[in-house]
Structures are given as C-alpha cells and as structure tokens.
C-alpha cells in the first residue's frame, strides 16, 4: 500500500514515454514536419501518408496553395493524374495540424477551421442518390462555420446541365464566405460559362516506354488541363490481348 503511489507514477511515466516515443517514431519514419497556422492552405513537397514509406524515386512530392481571394478552385486534368490524391493529402495535412501533429510536407500552412468535409464521387445516378446528396450537402454549405470542403467529381450525382448549375451556385456562395473549397471536375469549361473561379490543372504529357502515364502531379495554377482519356485507353490497349484489345483499338480510332 505504501508503494501504490510510486507504482502508479511509474506506470504513468512509462505510458507517457510510450506515447511520446511512438509519436516520435511515426514522425521520423514518415518524415513529418511541424506546420504553421495561417489564413489559408498551402504546402511544399507534400506527400500522401500512404506514399511516405515508398521508394522516393517512385513518388513525386507536390506543392499546392489555396488562399484568399481564390478560396474556391476547380481542379482539372489527367485521369489517374493524382487529383483525388491531392484532395486526400490536403485533408490529411489539415486534420493532422488540427490534432497538433506534424504533417507530411517540407513546409505547410494551415488555416484553423471549424469543419472539414470530403465528398467523394458517387457511382449511383438514381433519383434517391441525388436527393440524398442534396439533403446532406446543402445544409453544410449554408452553415456559418469556417470550413474546408473537398469535392471529388460531383458531376456523377446527376445529369450534366443540372450538375453545372448546382456546382456554380455552390461556388458563388462559398466565394462570399470565409470557407475554402476545391472541386475536382471534368466540367470546368461549362462551369466557367456561369461563374468566375480559378482553374488549376494536372497535366499529362504522354506515356513512357512501358505505357505508364507521364504526368507532373503538382497542379499548374490558373491552367486548364485536359483529362486525356485517350492516354488511359492507349495504356489499357497495350496491356490487353485478344478481342478486348480489338475493342480498345476501335475506341482509340475515335480520338
């Protein structure tokens, strides 16, 4: 009984050491750095956590900035070019910063926000899915809290013309707030006809000798990049055989 207090203190010290040591190992092995708080979101040489332990020669660190007055951005570009990975990387950096953790970037600036939302692409196009999206999404948009909203190809929720109107209305509303948003889309040309917004692009240059996509995964700001589906078709065409290869070949003839 006399040693109970000392034992409990020792246990707490061991637990605290274990926590600090584990956190230190996590930061060391993933090459994490402390972020800075600021008025927007930006990072240099950022990397998705899932790629942090990969061979550095096989991954590309990326730079990006989302700051006022361009608090809403359309992100365009190559299929399989890394647009979704960029959204996830920014989400990771923001969440880890708010948790008081170092982040997977050489430098990072993060705005303190109240809420973060990530809407991924929807596979279902039925009326129920569209109604469900609206009932979930619109209350979030009109909330007064500062937030970061990441939208991944929302055009899949409904037909093209309606999706353009919905996204354009969303852009206009967020631009007049203190919140931030990135919208991955293949409809940038149509959206720009109805609203004024910055467009960034991830550009694909072609395919290498092994038919892998050659792409600079750091977005070019104020640049419209094509989705280049023909490159993906060429890739799968070269890696296919038999009747499937013939079908892909006929598709390529249309480009």
UniProtKB/TrEMBL annotation:
<keyword id="KW-0547">Nucleotide-binding</keyword>
<dbReference type="Pfam" id="PF00488">
    <property type="entry name" value="MutS_V"/>
</dbReference>
<keyword id="KW-0238">DNA-binding</keyword>
<keyword id="KW-0067">ATP-binding</keyword>
<dbReference type="InterPro" id="IPR000432">
    <property type="entry name" value="DNA_mismatch_repair_MutS_C"/>
</dbReference>
<dbReference type="GO" id="GO:0030983">
    <property type="term" value="F:mismatched DNA binding"/>
</dbReference>
<protein>
    <submittedName>
        <fullName>AAA family ATPase</fullName>
    </submittedName>
</protein>
<dbReference type="InterPro" id="IPR045076">
    <property type="entry name" value="MutS"/>
</dbReference>
<dbReference type="GO" id="GO:0140664">
    <property type="term" value="F:ATP-dependent DNA damage sensor activity"/>
</dbReference>
<dbReference type="GO" id="GO:0005524">
    <property type="term" value="F:ATP binding"/>
</dbReference>
<feature type="domain" description="DNA mismatch repair proteins mutS family">
    <location>
        <begin position="70"/>
        <end position="241"/>
    </location>
</feature>
<dbReference type="InterPro" id="IPR027417">
    <property type="entry name" value="P-loop_NTPase"/>
</dbReference>
<dbReference type="GO" id="GO:0006298">
    <property type="term" value="P:mismatch repair"/>
</dbReference>
């Amino acid at each position: 009984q006399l040693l109970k207090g000392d034992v409990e203190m020792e246990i707490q010290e061991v637990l605290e050491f274990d926590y600090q040591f584990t956190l230190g190992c996590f930061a060391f092995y993933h090459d994490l750095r402390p972020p800075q708080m600021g008025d927007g979101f930006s990072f240099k040489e950022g990397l998705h956590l899932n790629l942090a332990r990969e061979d550095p020669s096989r991954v590309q660190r990326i730079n990006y900035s989302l700051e006022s007055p361009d608090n809403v951005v359309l992100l365009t570009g190559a299929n399989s070019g890394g647009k979704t990975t960029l959204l996830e990387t920014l989400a990771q950096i923001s969440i880890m910063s708010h948790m008081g953790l170092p982040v997977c970037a050489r430098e990072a600036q993060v705005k303190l926000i109240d809420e973060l939302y990530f809407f991924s692409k929807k596979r279902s196009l039925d009326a129920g899915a569209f109604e469900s999206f609206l009932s979930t999404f619109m209350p979030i948009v009109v909330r007064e809290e500062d937030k970061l909203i990441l939208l991944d190809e929302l055009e899949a929720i409904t037909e093209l013309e309606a999706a353009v109107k919905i996204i354009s209305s969303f852009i206009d509303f967020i631009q007049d707030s203190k919140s931030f948003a990135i919208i991955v889309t293949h409809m940038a040309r149509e959206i720009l006809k109805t609203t004024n917004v910055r467009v960034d692009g991830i550009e694909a240059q072609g395919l290498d000798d092994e038919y892998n996509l050659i792409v600079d995964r750091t977005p070019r700001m104020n640049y419209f990049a094509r989705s280049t589906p023909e490159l993906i078709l060429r890739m799968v065409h070269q890696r296919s055989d038999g009747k499937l290869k013939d079908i892909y070949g006929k598709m390529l003839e249309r480009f």
